[in-house]
Design brief:
Layout lengths: L2 H19 L5 H4 L10 E3 L11 E3 L1 H14 L2 E4 L5 E5 L2 E11 L4 H16 L6 H21 L4 E13 L2 E10 L4
Parallel strand pairs: 1-7
Antiparallel strand pairs: 1-2, 3-5, 4-5, 5-6, 6-7
Helix pairs in contact: 4-5
């Protein structure tokens, strides 16, 4: 494994450590792992349309979703050692798997989830039937998560693009995905 691969893997490890600790007092420090350009993206598991639900663009939007993840999500465990990393010049991309273990944060997150459902129902970019379908699917997924119980591990895949900056390797694009269930 080359020096550059190790540098990129170290950034992924710092990302994992941030998600493991979920220390909101260190959120600004964590955001230093991201390029500070306005075109950075974090694409969540529910995204399907750029700029739509769970497709976050720009440093402020990415910060907000990371804060939400740290507050309402369960325990994230990435396979840092098993990540496939490819580097070409000043760009690197990686893929890895992981799990999201359900914790007792669901009750804390319930008002947040209900607000998200309300936003889906009020999304004027969708026709009424699509609004109802999206909100229903979202609600059923949250109910299914709750029924799986504390400790259940949801598998996922994480892909990312990093760029080399004067400060080192930084995330430009991250995409979380989960198998269709």
């Amino acid at each position: 494994m080359g020096q550059v691969d190790q540098e990129v893997r170290q950034v992924l490890l710092r990302f994992q450590d941030g998600y493991a600790a979920r220390d909101l007092s260190k959120l600004d420090e964590f955001m230093e792992l991201f390029s500070q350009s306005d075109d950075i993206e974090l694409i969540g598991i529910g995204a399907s349309v750029r700029g739509g639900n769970e497709w976050f663009q720009g440093p402020q939007a990415v910060r907000e979703i990371v804060e939400s993840d740290w507050t309402y999500w369960g325990d994230v465990n990435l396979d840092v050692a098993g990540a496939q990393i490819t580097v070409r010049d000043d760009v690197a991309w990686l893929s890895t798997s992981g799990t999201l273990a359900q914790t007792d944060t669901f009750d804390k997150a319930l008002p947040f989830y209900l607000d998200q459902m309300k936003e889906l129902l009020e999304d004027e970019g969708l026709v009424p039937d699509a609004r109802l379908m999206e909100a229903t699917h979202f609600g059923l997924r949250r109910l299914r998560e709750r029924r799986k119980g504390i400790g259940y591990c949801w598998p996922f895949v994480l892909t990312a693009v990093l760029v080399r900056t004067a400060s080192g390797w930084r995330f430009h694009t991250i995409h979380w995905s989960m198998p269709v269930d």
